[in-house]
Design brief:
The complex is a heterodimer of chains A (386) and B (376). Chain A contains 15 helices and 4 strands. Chain A is mainly alpha-helical and 386 residues long. Chain A is elongated and about 95 Å long. The chains are: A mainly alpha (386), B mainly alpha (376).
Chain lengths: 386, 376
């Protein structure tokens, strides 16, 4: 690994960490799309800042861009408050307008601005090591490393200082304000940090990857845990791993680094989305199927409990009477047999003592209808689940 | 170049005519279908889909190896639809909310698309140049065949809209009721979503991935301010969309270095701003005027009822009183007294005021209404 490669990976990991932290809170607060808006609408801020200073690496650019990010949030909220359109429409109206202004400003002054629109969307991580911070003729490393490093430290300091407040205001804004923590201050604080992070990361990885790095790790982590601290840690971990492996994918395929980082993030999300133990697609579908069969089983047992006549309890009769398909009746019968709830003699089904007990408790459950109890009850009675 | 010359040029110049027609038709179809997106609270779906279409275009190019806009459209359509249904799946099957799902699909698909685009750029294939025009759109690349395609798609979607008008309208405002009436809501849902995806994909070449969502939203959001009727809103949105296309093209054609897409979006933005402020029913200006008027009326009524309480204590209700005694009541000004006088409720002579008969009546009624309302 060359020096530049290490530096690129270092920058990418720092960006991923800096993005994952505010991203987690944005996802939890259902404001993920505001990053989309901010990452687009900082463009006019950057262009205007460039016109003033004529220097792409001046700190004024970051300030202007962060200001236009916050301006976006304020505008969106203003439009939303008028009640003329819904919130998402407000977001969708504000950022394309600001982005258009940015593009037109760039196009109008194409000769003086050394700003490429492709670079705005994609970033130039590969070139980041060439733009170095030199002080007193000592090479201190790439500039973007310093920028994103300080943003990360700022974010971490704020996170540790206000963790409790953030947590309360994220999950229960009413409680937060009754405890004397202003949700408004928290909201705008978070928005400002997100804007600054977006701007800092934007330089290195471009507008789209910023969105991906903010939302994807947090969403992936959210599928795996319900604990805020664990979610933050997992999000940071996913971000950093995808950043580094994304770099090597890009290296192998000779493609854009930010594109391949996003692709890796996407694949990780897809894997977790499909296979997450509790909330993944497969386990959700499996649970649905399990519950459907168990509900059928309950219906079947209730039917048996209600009928003493033999013809009502004939195996063949069940198909017609409860109107189930063959496969379904068979799996229900099997499940009931496995759990010792029924016995079958000469194709006549009858309830065992255990089955009777289960049925009567199930009726109690249905009458009192407490949602959480049926799962406990199933745990007590079932040897095998559906 | 004055307006007359420009209009002449539109009719004579092939490129300009094609672009003007193309953007107008695009604006119309976007406005039409965008109305549904806005009312269904799916405004940002457009943004997500337009980004999600990018890998489709890239894969289509990788498969056929040449530039062919109808094959690209097909690729974009497929990957846009995959994106849409994945968003649905995420919202339905996990506890992630719609904003997270939209943002995820948007950024992940777009990132994958960029990966493919940069990969294509490295291929030794001379045809690859110009794929980036899908990022920001290049109206100048529109051909007459593209415009025809747009016209055909627009008329098909118009027919479908008219055919399923009643059902779609019902679905829009009361999905549960639609279901209980026995309509296939899933089919209707997929139908309207697919047409929204088609409209977005059509616009990619002209205004590009990033700005496409605004094309879909802005005309509809503007039209929403002027009416509460769906049919009028759809028509208005189509007109606004077409107008922003035509005006945007005109502006960008008359100046150097102005790309068409952003200008069209900004023109549409101006329509929205204008509608937000000046629409008579919901606009901010008229709302403010109504507020002021109500506040003044209330102030006037308060003054009148105060005077009524004074006049009531005298046998002769028109007995004059000094304006000074109103001083410990803060709700009056010289102007409001003047107004009351204009309405013939009071008479002002020098520093004295007296209530007229009609003023007394009006104030008494006011008081009655108030107590009646409280009783009810």
């Amino acid at each position: 690994m060359s020096n530049a490669q290490i530096e690129i990976q270092l920058i990418a990991s720092l960006v991923a960490m800096a993005c994952a932290i505010p991203g987690t809170f944005l996802v939890l607060r259902k404001m993920a799309l505001i990053t989309d808006a901010i990452s687009h609408s900082i463009l006019p801020g950057i262009v205007i800042g460039f016109f003033i200073t004529h220097d792409l690496s001046s700190p004024l650019l970051i300030i202007m861009a962060a200001a236009s990010g916050v301006l976006t949030v304020v505008l969106v909220e203003f439009i939303q408050k008028t009640g003329l359109v819904k919130e998402d429409t407000a977001i969708g109206l504000v950022f394309p307008a600001l982005f258009s202004i940015g593009i037109i400003l760039i196009a109008q002054n194409a000769n003086d601005v050394h700003l490429d629109i492709d670079a705005v969307l994609l970033g130039e991580l590969a070139f980041a090591p060439f733009d170095r911070l030199i002080m007193h003729e000592i090479d201190l490393g790439p500039k973007s490393l310093w920028i994103i490093g300080s943003i990360l430290i700022l974010t971490l300091v704020l996170l540790f200082a206000f963790f409790k407040e953030l947590k309360v205001s994220t999950f229960d804004a009413g409680l937060a304000s009754s405890l004397g923590l202003s949700p408004v201050v928290m909201h705008y604080g978070l928005m400002t940090v997100s804007s600054i992070t977006t701007v800092g990361a934007f330089d290195a990885v471009g507008a789209i990857l910023v969105i991906a790095l903010m939302i994807a790790p947090a969403a992936t982590a959210y599928l795996l845990t319900n604990n805020l601290k664990k979610m933050l840690l997992l999000a940071v971990l996913f971000g950093v791993c995808s950043a580094i492996s994304g770099y090597w994918v890009a290296h192998a395929l000779d493609t854009s680094i930010s594109g391949s980082m996003t692709t890796v993030l996407g694949s990780v999300f897809l894997l977790v989305y499909l296979f997450a133990p509790d909330k993944g697609l497969f386990s959700v579908l499996y649970r649905h199927k399990q519950q459907r069969i168990e509900v059928s089983l309950l219906t079947f047992l209730l039917h048996l409990g209600n009928h003493q006549e033999e013809e009502e309890r004939h195996v063949k009769h069940l198909n017609e009477h409860i109107n189930w398909q063959k496969v379904r009746s068979k799996s229900v019968l099997d499940l009931a047999l496995k759990n010792n709830m029924i016995t079958i003699e000469k194709d006549i089904v009858s309830l065992t003592n255990k089955g009777k007990k289960f049925t009567s408790e199930a009726i109690d459950y249905i009458v009192t209808n407490k949602n959480s109890e049926i799962e406990n009850m199933k745990d007590r009675f079932f040897l095998f689940r559906g | 170049m004055n307006l007359q010359e420009y209009i002449d040029l539109v009719f004579t110049d092939y490129t300009l005519r094609t672009i003007t027609l193309g953007t107008a038709v695009l604006g119309a179809i976007c406005g039409m279908l965008g109305s549904f997106a806005v009312l269904r609270k799916q405004s940002l779906l457009g943004d997500a889909i337009s980004h999600a279409a990018l890998p489709g275009i890239a894969i289509a190019f990788l498969l056929i190896g040449t530039k062919n806009s109808s094959v690209f459209l097909l690729g974009a359509l497929i990957s846009g639809l995959i994106g849409t249904f994945w968003i649905r799946g995420i919202i339905k099957n996990t506890h992630l909310k719609s904003d997270t799902a939209l943002g995820l699909i948007l950024s992940l698909f777009f990132g994958f698309g960029m990966l493919l685009l940069t990969y294509i750029q490295k291929l030794p294939n001379a045809n690859q140049a110009g794929l980036e025009s899908y990022l920001f759109g290049q109206a100048a690349t529109l051909l007459e065949s593209d415009v025809w395609l747009m016209v055909v798609v627009t008329s098909i979607s118009l027919c479908i809209l008219l055919l399923f008008w009643k059902e779609l309208k019902l679905l829009l405002f009361d999905a549960d009721y639609t279901k209980t009436l026995g309509f296939n809501t899933r089919f209707l849902d997929i139908l309207i979503t697919s047409f929204i995806v088609i409209a977005i994909v059509l616009g990619l070449q002209t205004v590009g991935v990033v700005l496409m969502s605004a094309m879909l939203l802005a005309p509809a959001a503007a039209a929403r301010q002027w009416t509460n009727s769906l049919s009028i809103m759809v028509i208005l949105a189509a007109i606004f969309g077409a107008l922003s296309g035509v005006v945007g093209t005109a502006i960008s054609a008359s100046y150097n270095n102005l790309s068409t897409g952003p200008v069209i979006v900004l023109v549409a933005g101006v329509f929205v701003l204008f509608s937000f402020i000046f629409s008579p029913g919901r606009g901010l200006l008229f709302r403010e005027i109504r507020f002021r008027k109500n506040r003044n009326d209330l102030q006037l009524h308060k003054t009148l009822s105060f005077m009524y309480n004074i006049a009531k204590t005298h046998e002769d209700i028109t007995h004059p009183h000094a304006i000074k005694i109103l001083n410990n009541f803060q709700g009056f000004t010289r102007k409001s007294l003047q107004k009351l006088e204009d309405k013939d409720y009071i008479k002002v002579e020098g520093t004295m005021w007296s209530m007229t008969k009609s003023g007394y009546q009006a104030a008494a009624n006011l008081y009655n209404q108030l107590t009646n309302n409280e009783d009810e």
